[in-house]
Amino acid sequence: MERMICASANSGSYFTNIAAVHDAKTAPSKAVIDSAGGSRLRTTGIGGCDRPRLGDNVGDYGLASSTANDGKAVIVGMQQKGNRVARINDRWLERATVYNAGGRPKNSEEAMGQAKQRARAQVNAHQSIEEELRGFGINTAEFGFYDQQAFLEREQMDGQFLEKYAQWVDTRPRSAEYDARARIIVPKLASFMADLFEKEGMQRSCVHVSSMLPRILDRMGIWSFGLMGSFVAEVTEADLWRGQASCDVIDFPGAQRGHAWVVAPPFVIVDATIRLQNPQGDPMNDYLPEIVAAEDAALTKATVDDVVSAELRRAYAEHEGRSDSQLHHRLVPQLRKFSQSFPSREITIGQAVLRYVPTGVRVSDLPLEEINSAGEKLIGAEVWDEHIVPNFAEYILPKS
User: Fold this and answer.
1) Taking the model in full, what pTM does it have?
2) What does the DSSP assignment read for 290-358?
3) Tens digits of residue pLDDT in 180-192
4) Are residues 338 and 331 in contact, defined by beta-carbon separation less than 8 angstroms?
5) Beta bridge partners of residue 294, listed in sequence order
6) How far apart are alpha carbons 134 and 180 in whole angstroms?
7) How many Cα neighbours within 13 Å face the side chain of 356?
8) How confident is the model at residue 25 (pLDDT cuts 50, 70, 90)?
9) Residue 130 CA to chain centroid, in angstroms?
10) For the chain, domain boundaries
């Protein structure tokens, strides 16, 4: 079960992902859309991501992701072939790739001035959110304060309120000591979870892992939240393209569209299941990193190819007699506003270009121990008791 707040597909009632359910031969007007005007959705039997389509041409399907700032980007996790994440001084930081996300060198004085402006704006934004939350009787000192009764009551009245938690975490002032600790824990935990789910053969497990990670990080004193949306991986040199679109035709009842990942500042993208999204033997796997833990990534603009699958775009084009480059904004009318707080991002690792386009904030309604409780293996309680506690005891905060 989970709570989600998404860019709305429909200005009224409950919504999460756009889930167009229809036969490509029928008119899109007959599609059933899992809508809900930007409110939260509680579901049972959390499932994995849709199966990526093999053999599609570049641009056939699409998606992308979020969170802002230019400057330096640190990406942890390299190519799967021959460069698995290695322990270095008990860190899984292997050979971090550092580059200028803007793609060009910056004048140091200009960069410093921009950094100070961003820092001031972030402090002001955080103070404003803090005052609003405390005014509602919400104790922001507690990790996962979205579970507090006062928060839930506001969320019932305001379908967008879950975004406040994510914005609070995203703008929260951090010390150098906090960031240093997060840089040890987050990549190590993401790598550990990726190995664990891969060992159990749990492909396309992004929803499971991105539901568990924030709950686990809470217990280690690291603030985080989940995002869902579209994801695209492209290797131009090898003519490879894989994508998971937020707006797509349902492959099977209950299928989850798109992708799910985590933001854990200073990391703006934490994707522990990137290497589990494609079937074994997919040539794309040779170019994908073990995990993605990026401290910054270039901002990008979501396109219709990112957000709406090729099949759904074709169906709309056939029905309307035209192609619409703004179809994603028709299907997700709040995307522009949502992207102001949670922008799309693009990063390059080796030859692979990765695009993350968030369309919603997501959290699990269940405590860690009950996540994936309908599954046969890697239930939350098992993950915590049998895997996390023995391997991460030094990072776990004492119970209050």
Assistant:
1) 0.75
2) S-EEES--EEE---HHHHB-HHHHHHHHHHHTS--TTHHHHHSTTHHHHHHHS-EEEEEETTEEEEEEE
3) 999 999 999 999 9
4) no
5) 75, 269
6) 28
7) 31
8) very low
9) 24
10) 49-109+175-395
